[in-house]
Amino acid sequence: MAFGPRLEPRRVTKPGVERWPVKTGTDDDIALVGKNVFAGKNFGAGIVEATVEELVAMPRIPEMSNVGSLNPDFQSKRAIPVECVIWRIKAKIIELKLEADGDYHLVLQGATGETMIGEVPTPTKRFIEDGPWLHNIKAARQAVDDKLIHKISPADFVLSPKGMLVPRNSFTSPLPPLRSEFLPESFKTAPEGKEHLMPTFKTQVPATPAEITGVGFFDKVHGQDGVSLGNGIELHAILKIVFLD
């Protein structure tokens, strides 16, 4: 199958927009996260253990019942209780993607094969300001770079028709060569001020078991890789990753 030429890859451009304050911990309800006080009852502050299967089965609140759209009233407001809980799950990371909003998009697979998404934002002030999670997100991002990204060579990638770098064996037909100035030496997180130089990319990774800690988040379902179709739940932002192998 032949494809028309594309001159350069889509790059990390700018922070996201939809519910970005909630995704990055700069929202109006941030003080509620991790306190686990709901409807006047104190369940004890801290991290709550769960599984992928349990999270994908959790109902959305009535105000967010339509999984295909976002309620603008929740742009900087959280769905209680799920989005005020810091969850910890064990899962296998099976896919990794760098999106145009700077997030590492991880597909997390549970014991049954169910999947959901976890996101690690770009840990710079341009993307997440000086929010309370900056240090944690930076550590989580570094963990992904050290465990997964350092094994990936950009030289093994080609430019897809959609403008994203993908593994060379993704297509049977040769794709137009990518000019060297568009190909970084590494996909590791770019430093502050150079985020825009990083091309977006997507790749499968060997199933890698990990313990992932992050804040619950209900996204709209719009065909994302690995999305939980029933409720669109994610861990966003991921605050800690411990690899188990």
Describe the structure.
This protein has 245 residues and is of the alpha+beta class. It has helices at 20-24, 52-56, 125-128, 134-147; strands at 37-38, 41-42, 48-49, 86-98, 104-109, 115-120, 157-159, 165-167, 201-218, 233-243. The protein has 4 helices and 10 strands. The strands form 3 sheets. The chain has a 5-stranded mixed β-barrel with strand order 4-5-6-10-9. Strands 1-2 form a two-stranded antiparallel ribbon. The chain has a two-stranded antiparallel sheet with strand order 7-8. The chain is globular, with a radius of gyration of 18 Å. The mean pLDDT is 93.
Write the layout of secondary structure elements.
Layout: H1 20-24, E1 37-38, E2 41-42, E3 48-49, H2 52-56, E4 86-98, E5 104-109, E6 115-120, H3 125-128, H4 134-147, E7 157-159, E8 165-167, E9 201-218, E10 233-243
Parallel strand pairs: 3-4, 6-10
Antiparallel strand pairs: 1-2, 4-5, 4-9, 5-6, 7-8, 9-10
